[in-house]
Specification:
Elements: H1 11-28, H2 36-43, H3 47-53, H4 57-72, H5 74-80, H6 87-99, H7 103-106, H8 118-146, H9 154-168, H10 178-196, H11 214-226
Helix pairs in contact: 1-2, 1-4, 4-8, 5-6, 6-8, 8-9
Length: 227
């Protein structure tokens, strides 16, 4: 009988298989109800192979979230490193092109809001703050050097702002009405100006937005569904 050829994969390729299988299972079963045995079964390897790459399901979840964020952080990095923009222009651009429109990129993460993914959602919020902070801090420090921002604790201001931003505007946590969402989006610039000691109306995020932000679209959809 002819033997089947054994498929050999590189460690990185195998690791990515585990991450993709886990994400697929978390979408369907939820993080809480997915066991390591479910993951290895979907990948088609022995359970011992899993522990060669990850110490636990918890460590795998952290790696999965970092992979998601790495794919998303390219825009932030490109803005932060643009030599043609001032710190003030960069922070406005980050807010307009990333945060206000972030639902365009992250809408497929709605499964994070399921009750069986509560811990996964918490991890996502924490890792998001940790991923954004170095880039935004660099932008703020540039603005301080240019004289447009005035704060003695740029990193702490960024962490404080990002925690509030991700938590308050998360549709899986707060079910704001369209009117409330619009008001809160309009307030972002004023809040940033006060935190950074910037001139009034210098960080107007709401002004000249080209499209309706996904967060407002979601609020509209939720309002229609509740009628």
């Amino acid at each position: 009988m002819e033997k089947l050829a054994r498929v050999t994969k590189s460690p990185e390729e195998r690791k990515q298989e585990f991450l993709s299988a886990a994400e697929s299972l978390f979408r369907v079963k939820g993080y809480e109800r997915t066991a390591v045995s479910d993951i290895v079964k979907q990948v088609g390897v022995a359970q011992g192979t899993f522990y060669y790459y990850f110490k636990s399901k918890d460590e795998l979840a952290d790696a999965m979230i970092r992979r998601m964020l790495d794919e998303h952080m390219g825009l932030i990095e490109s803005i932060a490193e643009d030599p043609e923009l001032s710190g003030q222009e960069k922070i406005v651009k980050v807010m307009k092109e990333d945060f206000v429109k972030r639902g365009d990129n992250l809408e497929n993460l709605d499964y994070m809001h399921h009750e069986n993914n509560a811990l996964l959602h918490q991890k996502m919020l924490v890792e998001s703050v940790k991923a954004y902070t170095p880039f935004i801090t660099g932008i703020i420090e540039q603005g301080i050097g240019e004289g447009s921002f005035h704060t003695s604790h740029p990193r702490e201001v960024v962490e404080f702002f990002m925690v509030g931003l991700f938590f308050l505007y998360d549709p899986g946590i707060f079910a704001w009405t369209v009117e409330e969402v619009v008001t809160k989006l309009q307030a972002i610039g004023e809040i940033l100006e006060k935190l950074l000691g910037a001139e009034k109306d210098s960080l107007d995020i709401w002004k000249d937005l080209p499209d309706m932000p996904i967060i407002i679209q979601k609020a509209l959809k939720a309002e229609k569904a509740s009628r």
